[in-house]
């Protein structure tokens, strides 16, 4: 998948397709969108591959803010051990 906004920024041109996406919880959504050919490069050996990516408006919906303090206490994590944090910002913003 690729965000339509990202495909536009990259100047990609796609072909119109109709797809059915199964979301978390099994909910299905049918949409007409575009399929793009996207070139990706391996970080290990610099090999280049072309993959087909389906364009969608966003990859994740609104995320609920999670109070990590309580979770950290349950897991006996010290504050300095906490390298993760979850906010209510979209996870697909890049």
Please state the structural category.
Answer: mainly beta
Main β-sheet description: 4 strands, mixed
Taken in chain order, the helices and strands follow as EHEEEH
- Count of helices? 2
Overall pLDDT score: 80
Proportion in helices: 10-25%
By oligomeric state, this entry counts as single chain
Beta strand %: 35-45%
| Low-pLDDT segments | none
Distance between the termini: 13 Å
Radius of gyration: 18 Å
Shape: extended
Got a strand count? 4
What is the spatial order of strands in the main beta sheet? 1-4-3-2
Task: Describe the fold and architecture.
14% of the residues lie in helices and 35% in strands. By secondary structure, the chain is mostly beta strands. It is extended and about 50 Å long. A 4-stranded mixed sheet has the order 1-4-3-2. β2 and β3 (28-41) form a beta hairpin. The mean pLDDT is 80.
């Amino acid at each position: 998948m690729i965000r339509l906004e990202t495909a536009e920024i990259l100047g990609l041109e796609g072909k119109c397709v109709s797809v059915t996406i199964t979301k978390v919880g099994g909910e299905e959504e049918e949409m007409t969108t575009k399929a793009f050919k996207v070139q990706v490069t391996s970080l290990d050996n610099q090999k280049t591959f072309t993959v087909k990516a389906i364009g969608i408006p966003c990859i994740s919906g609104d995320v609920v803010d999670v109070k990590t303090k309580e979770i950290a206490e349950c897991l006996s994590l010290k504050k300095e051990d906490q390298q993760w944090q979850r906010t209510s910002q979209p996870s697909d913003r890049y």
